């Protein structure tokens, strides 16, 4: 894999829940950043490199879904995992439609949290890796700016496609889990 | 059991029978006294005894019916009991028929006139007493009078014949009058029955609506409570997972174990609070004793129910710092209900508006404690201010509001000697709960 250990952003308005998630993820030996609502998370995402986001949905000021929408509008492809209340189908569907990678139902099993987060992190890291490689490639080719923009769009589409395929796989496993 | 109007009619018949039958017995005694000299003593005694026995029998049957059927609200066949009553009337009528024939002294015109007078009085009385049943009144009228009339006809002579003619006219008139009376009485009974039915239905509906209002309020909260409980459950489950992992490690991490155990403790207390609060809401607190309770406790308990709703919608809910020494004498579950109602109303009023907020203000002086719920709305239009506390008045969409919340809240505050009112001097929408201060 690569040398970067990765950074995970935990977004939850409940301090105890943030702490518990942090303790669970500690064994992954990753950098962990915590935010108490969507707005704060958005600021962090704009300024720091984050490889995966694990976020609550219902939060004051800016909900998890609004956060994801904003992030995608800003053309950031960081994978999102949502922590949802049991049976919160409406929010879940909306999250998947917006391009969330996966979800964890409260009260969650710690192993599930680890499994899902690991996958998100892996995807996020590889996205960043590809992105970096392509950027240097563009630089090497010294393409005109419009061309780079076009290529970036194509690349973005390809990445989203990768996320989509992950979602499809997850959905299948999720269906299996529910039965 | 819900009585039909037919059953109500028969109940009235049985209830009114007693007075007429008692009067009838008095008449029996008077008539016996009157003919005692002219008619065989044994026959008179036998007649009187039979009359008494019959009246007693009727009395027993009627008492039994009223006691065992009506009072115990059992279902019964109106037709059957009308017939039973009518059989009694026929038997007693026949006794008077005998009085006007077999027991009538021969060739005594004075006695003819007397019994004629008596029978007319008797049957007119019965027509009134039995006016709820044409069958019963005719059952008495015809066997009492017809034999006497035929007797008079067979006697011949001017007076008996004209008496017989008079009796025919009398029977016709009494029959017509009793039919008329009957139709009025039946109509009024129908109206009374309708009134009883409508009133009981109305009461039932009122109770149902009040229950529905409560259930709707509970239902609204249920979603919020589910979220409210899921978070602490996630904390507990997550913590226990970490604890298990620590237990499996060789190196024990005492500090973290302690920290997690504390988290679990605090979180279970939080869930227990929500559950006990829910229990408090789901029962009828109207008969709870009045208690001296810290206002702060009530406000905090109430907030457990709706904080998440506000949070999820991103509506700031600000609460004044409440002095812990402020106490009010109240049924706390009810006051909580009033406060929750005001908060839910405020929530609904501002949820779709830009930059919404809701605030709870508490002030207290020597005489009173004031709790106000203010929201970012611009007040209530003048034309509906007066209707606010009326039952069933709502500005919410059909199916969303019952229009009972504020009227019930108003009643609760009155029951506490307090006041619930709209503060029209405030530029925002501000509802005020006012209490007398506890000693």
Summarize this structure as a short list of keywords or feature phrases.
heterodimer; A: 179 residues; alpha/beta; 5-stranded parallel sheet; 15% strand; B: 439 residues; alpha+beta; 5-stranded mixed sheet; 11 helices; 7 strands; elongated
In terms of topology, how is this protein built?
The complex is a heterodimer of chains A (179) and B (439).
Chain A: E1 7-11, H1 15-26, E2 31-35, H2 38-47, E3 52-56, H3 64-73, E4 80-85, H4 89-97, E5 102-106, H5 110-141, H6 145-178
Parallel strand pairs in A: 1-2, 1-3, 3-4, 4-5
Helix pairs in contact in A: 2-3, 5-6
Chain B: H1 5-35, H2 41-70, H3 78-99, H4 109-129, H5 134-155, H6 158-248, H7 254-282, E1 291-294, H8 295-313, E2 317-319, E3 327-330, H9 332-350, E4 358-364, E5 368-375, H10 382-385, H11 405-415, E6 419-422, E7 429-436
Could you explain the architecture of this structure?
- The complex is a heterodimer of chains A (179) and B (439).
- Chain A is of the alpha/beta class and 179 residues long.
- Chain A has helices at residues 15-26, 38-47, 64-73, 89-97, 110-141, 145-178, and strands spanning 7-11, 31-35, 52-56, 80-85, 102-106.
- Chain A is built from six helices and five strands; from the N terminus they run E-H-E-H-E-H-E-H-E-H-H.
- Chain B is built from eleven helices and seven strands.
- Chain B has helices at residues 5-35, 41-70, 78-99, 109-129, 134-155, 158-248, 254-282, 295-313, 332-350, 382-385, 405-415; strands spanning 291-294, 317-319, 327-330, 358-364, 368-375, 419-422, 429-436.
- Chain B has a five-stranded mixed sheet. Chain B has a two-stranded antiparallel sheet with strand order 1-3.
- The A-B interface holds A 13-14, 16-17, 19-21, 23-24, 27, 58-63, 83, 85-87, 106-111, 113 and B 226-227, 230-231, 233-239, 241-242, 245, 256, 260, 263, 266-267, 308, 311-312, 314, 316.
